[in-house]
Design brief:
The chain is α/β, with parallel strands linked by helices. It has two domains: 1-60 and 84-112, no CATH class; 121-273 and 308-358, 3-Layer(aba) Sandwich (Glycerol-3-phosphate (1)-acyltransferase), CATH 3.40.1130. 31% of the residues lie in helices and 11% in strands. The chain has nine helices and eleven strands. The strands form three sheets. The chain has a seven-stranded mixed beta sheet with strand order 3-11-8-4-7-5-6, sandwiched between helices. Strands 1-2 form a two-stranded parallel sheet. A two-stranded antiparallel ribbon has the order 9-10. Helix 4 (196-202) links the parallel strand 5 and strand 6. Helix 2 (116-134) packs across helix 3 (163-175) and helix 5 packs parallel to helix 7 (250-258). The longest helix is centred in the C-terminal third of the chain and has 25 residues, at 334-358. The N and C termini lie far apart (46 Å).
Length: 364
């Protein structure tokens, strides 16, 4: 199968990065992403040295100007409804065109491996039934995410497995008026697991480091981070909805340098999908995992025990905290970072308590 076209951010990348191997003899076209001074739909010129790497896609929504092309499904023809006799023919043609682009490599990825077409047409379609039918996610405050430009979404992390990040990604994609894409920052472990590594990159996730986050934010992307990390997702069930430490406030420093707003996000429902009653630490060390969960069903029921409980979820995006009024050197002020970090954490925790009081049941 031929490789995809590649879209670099710029041509001055000096930091080394792990990249998926490229088959010998395969070439990749290059298209630059919008920089901080470019409009979201504006493209730059092909880059040089990084033509063989994978680079980040610009934010786009359904119906955005210039959105048509190899990576975008064509809209319905005038006068022909989707329910008409030709509806299945258009779907079949669209599917065959998608497969042809996959085989010939006529699709685009960015230097982080993000494949927007695959994410929109395949990965989101696979996650949507889980989001809509199984967890029945209710979304609030999505209008607090800006329609254009960069923003940093900071959320609580829970649930033993990181399904909360995926559900948050679907929420932004499906409910935001501009159809924006969320680029999640993930732990190193994600990028060393077979299959998971490739899928995470295709879905737009990248390594949780300040350089990558700032690069995406300056390019006008929506970036998601969960500062609790493994401490949050792997905490015992008895500590559910009690936020863990938010690290050293690195996400605040990144937002200050990029001059983008911080959007607090509170997720209720994920804590109960895998009630973690214990942690097999010895087995976790042998396998190289940060923890090995023991739940009422796992590992006792085998693969069946890995099925999450069908809890009712609520995702609420809070009022953004603006950072563009601070001077550039504010990113080096430890007291300011501590205060902003504490402000974000307190806002998320307060919203969690409020949502817990409002919900009628864990499952309804």
């Amino acid at each position: 199968m031929a490789d995809a076209k590649v879209i670099p951010f710029d041509d001055d990348r000096s930091r080394a990065r792990r990249r998926p191997a490229r088959a010998e003899g395969e070439a990749a076209a290059v298209r630059a992403l919008p920089g901080p001074q470019q409009a979201p739909g504006e493209s730059g010129k092909p880059g040089g040295p990084e033509g063989g790497s994978e680079a980040s896609g610009a934010p786009s929504g359904p119906g955005a100007p210039g959105a048509s092309g190899p990576g975008t499904a064509a809209g319905p023809e005038p006068g022909r409804g989707a329910s008409g006799g030709s509806g299945w023919e258009r779907r079949l043609a669209s599917g065959l065109a998608f497969l042809r682009r996959r085989v010939t490599g006529e699709y685009e990825v960015d230097e982080f491996g993000y494949d927007e077409e695959l994410t929109d047409q395949v990965l989101m379609s696979l996650l949507r039934p889980l989001y809509e039918k199984y967890f029945r996610v209710e979304v609030k405050g999505v209008e607090n995410i800006p329609a254009k430009g960069g923003a940093l979404i900071v959320a609580n992390h829970s649930g033993t497995l990181p399904l909360d990040g995926l559900m948050m990604q679907v929420a932004v994609h499906d409910h935001h008026p501009a159809g924006r894409h969320l680029r999640l920052l993930a732990a190193d472990l994600v990028f060393v697991l077979p299959v998971v590594n490739e899928l995470a990159r295709k879905a737009g996730h990248t390594l949780a480091c300040a350089e990558d986050a700032e690069r995406l934010l300056r390019a006008g992307e929506i970036v998601g981070v969960m500062p609790e990390g493994f401490k949050g997702i792997g905490k015992p069930f008895g500590e559910r909805y009690k936020l863990q430490r938010f690290g050293r406030g690195g996400f605040v420093s990144t937002a200050l340098r990029a001059g983008v707003p911080i959007v607090p996000c509170s997720i209720v429902g994920a804590e109960e999908i895998y009630p973690m009653l214990g942690n097999a630490k010895t087995l976790a060390r042998v396998l190289g995992f940060p923890y090995f969960p023991l739940t009422p069903t796992f590992p006792w029921l085998g693969p069946l025990g890995a099925l999450p409980l069908p809890t009712k979820w609520t995702i609420q995006f809070g009022e953004p905290i603006e950072t563009d009024s601070y001077a550039p050197e504010a990113a080096e002020d430890p007291m300011l970072m501590f205060n902003l970090t504490d402000q974000v954490r307190e806002q998320i925790q307060h919203t969690l308590y409020k949502l817990l009081v409002q919900r009628r049941s864990v499952f309804f």
